[in-house]
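Ops channel
N.P.: pipeline sanity check, posting one input/output pair.
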């Protein structure tokens, strides 16, 4: 049992939140990265939305869903990842390691001239991690 728990903990830390790499990337590039770096996530090609263009990926166990939002040029302008609450503590630790200790569930990082804000919002059964460009600097 201890081996299983240790393996699970290591697995969570070896699957980093890489959403920041998507900002500004084309749809084709994002699909290639998702296939290579996130083989456990499946594309949901059945989604259609007349207002927003996005790519959707989900895990087989329904513990993780990614929405990668695209602008009019087909480039990423935001990512929202929904996780099951059983992953909350591990993902918060991961965000703290990657971006420094949080301030009220908010982190930030820079890509070129763009400042990206990461926000966590916890609900009863799930929580979301949202990466979006900060337009108010």
């Amino acid at each position: 049992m201890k081996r299983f728990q240790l393996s699970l903990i290591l697995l969570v830390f070896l699957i980093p939140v890489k959403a920041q790499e998507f900002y500004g990337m084309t749809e084709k590039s994002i699909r290639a990265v998702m296939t290579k770096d996130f083989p456990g996530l499946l594309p949901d090609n059945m989604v259609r939305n007349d207002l927003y263009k996005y790519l959707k990926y989900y895990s087989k166990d329904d513990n993780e869903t990614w929405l990668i939002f695209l602008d009019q040029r087909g480039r990423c302008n935001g990512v929202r990842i929904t996780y099951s609450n059983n992953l909350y503590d591990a993902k918060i630790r991961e965000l703290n390691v990657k971006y420094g200790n949080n301030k009220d569930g908010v982190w930030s990082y820079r890509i070129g001239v763009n400042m990206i804000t990461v926000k966590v919002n916890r609900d009863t059964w799930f929580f979301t991690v949202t990466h979006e460009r900060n337009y108010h600097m």
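N.P.: looks fine end to end. The helical segments are 2-14, 27-37, 88-99.
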